[in-house]
Amino acid sequence: MMITIDHVKAQGYCAKGARVFFKEYGLNWQDFLAQGIEANTLLATHNEMAIALVKKVQENEHGHG
Fold it and tell me: Superkingdom of this entry's organism (predicted)?
């Protein structure tokens, strides 16, 4: 599942904070903006906010949110 900047914003996370997160974890911000990022890549960071984002997107896409 791809996570996009629209998902980030829809969950109330700010783009500035997300950009800092990407830098801290060595992830490419520009690629993310253009294509999104695999949910598994975010989960692999073990970052609580990233995990919460993925779970929320999964719930919303499966009609549970």
Answer: Bacteria
- What 3-state class would DSSP assign to 18? helix
CA 28, distance to chain mean position in Å, is 12
CA distance 40 to 33: 17
For the chain, what's the residue count? Answer: 65
Cut 0.85: pTM above it: yes
Are 54 and 8 a contacting pair, CB within 8 Å?
Answer: no
Residue 19, C-beta contacts closer than 8 angstroms, at least 6 positions apart = 29
Distance CA 10, CA 33 (A): 15
- C-alpha to C-alpha distance for 56 and 65, rounded to whole angstroms: 7
Q: How confident is the model at residue 30 (pLDDT cuts 50, 70, 90)?
A: very high
